[in-house]
Amino acid sequence: MIAGGGPVGCIAALALARAGFPVQLFEAQPRVNDSPRAATTHAATLEMLAELGLVDEVMRRGLIEPKFRIWDRASREVIAEFDFGVLKDDTRFPYVVQCEQHKLANMAIEQLRRFAHARVDFSSRVATLRQFDDHVEAVIEDARGTHKVHGSYLIGADGGRSTVRKALGIVFEGYTHPERFLVLTTTFSFDSEHAQCSRNYFSDPEEWCALFKVTGDDGSGLWRVLFPTRADESDEQALDADAVEERLQKFFPKGGRYPVVHRNLYNVHQRVAASFGRGRVFLAGDCAHVNNPLGGLGLNFGIHDAVELSALLGRVLRGEEGAHILEQYDRFRRPLNIEYVQQQTIANKKRLEEKDPAVRGKNNEALRRTAADPVAHRAYLLRASLIDSVRKRAAAAA
Question: Residue 397's pLDDT is what?
Fold first, then answer.
């Protein structure tokens, strides 16, 4: 059983179904949430999606981007440009693909529906659960009322406010940033200045910004702009049409107003569950860890959770290993998240918002040296693409 029909839950279900195991996925909402959320798919993740038969469609419906740039907003100069092409000997996919997460979830669901032993139930919420020696019992709330479903294991992939995690009594350790993040989606094309690189981060001590492109549902292209809000700014103030326009014009001045088609405001956390599982129940994705989106690491690591957990469960369910090997999931994935996701995303945010001129100068010079040195450039991207985290996990298993 899987709680949560986002990309992580859907990938876990697909991986298990492809291995021949009956799966039932429960999603509380009536359909996949298509609001603007994560979009960056890194090389390590593309390798996994290839094994699941999804990568060709992800590339077809997404935007392939081999580079990203870090800018100094005040001078409008590029501090450093990083090119994933230097990883051509490390991966089949030396780039990222900008493919919105709702597309990925729907792709996985489409494949799941081809399996007679896989079932996806929307408008169905896992409300409570009980564990027994040989199974898990979940109480499901749906249009019929409440009823019980049994399964050998349960994967919680039901997001940062996870019912599953709370039912297990697992603490969500960490903190919440004082500011929120405002994501604006516009049909205005920034191609005239940013066609050569569609992933951009603008460092500024007062108000930093991230700008990147996605294909949109119709493939015509949309640009997303991410800003931090002020700590004293209300939701109404941040989302106000004139305030939104002022923010955009401050960074990217142009004649006429911006056509903003979507505004999203959300709290930003750096949290990791004290444990990634208990008994026959496991946590994956945002249910287990959340982080700021700078670097596009959270969703990717969540997909890695789903792939590793499904592989471990498969070995147990096939009788190849005893259930004790499931302890590896928490033992390895939790510290990997702290090292490769929490540390990187926290550092990315600090670098963009740094106020001390001397520290900013030092940071910028370090980025320039890294980008200019082929060895350091490659090492930086192996970490940024999560290839290093996959290699570290593989070495631990050897």
Answer: 87
Closest Cα partner for 224 from 195, 250, 192, 190? 190
Among 120, 123, 99, 96, residue whose Cα is nearest residue 16:
120
pTM above 0.90, yes or no: yes
Could you tell me the CA-to-CA distances from 257 to 107, 146, 193, 226 in Å, in that order? Answer: 35, 50, 18, 18
Is the pLDDT confidence value at 372 over 80? Answer: yes
Instruction: Of 190, 227, 224, give the one whose Cα is nearest residue 206.
Output: 227
User: 2-175+269-397 has which CATH code?
Assistant: 3.50.50.60
Tens digits of residue pLDDT in 170-204: 999 999 999 999 999 999 999 999 999 999 999 99
| Rounded percentage of the chain residues whose pLDDT exceeds 70 | 100
Q: Where are the beta strands (DSSP E) in the chain?
A: 2-3, 23-26, 40-41, 63-65, 67-72, 77-83, 96-98, 118-121, 125-131, 136-142, 145-151, 154-156, 172-186, 199-203, 209-214, 222-228, 260-273, 277-278, 281-283, 289-290
Whole-angstrom Cα distance, residue 185 to residue 207? 18
AA letter at 160: G
* Pairing relationship of beta strands 222-228 and 260-273 according to DSSP bridges: unpaired
Sequence-ordered alpha helix ranges (H) in 186-270: 191-194, 235-239, 241-251
What does the domain layout of the chain look like in residue ranges?
Answer: 2-175+269-397
- Give yes or no for a contact between 84 and 372, defined as CB atoms under 8 angstroms apart: no
Q: Which two tokens stand for residue 386?
A: 């999560």
DSSP annotation of 117: T
H or E element in which residue 356 lies: none
The residue type found at 294 is L
| 57-to-6, 168, 392 alpha-carbon distances in Å | 17, 36, 29
**Position 225 pLDDT exceeds 80:** yes
> Minimal CA–CA distance to 342: which of 266, 287, 269?
269
Q: How far apart are CA 124 and CA 107, in angstroms?
A: 20
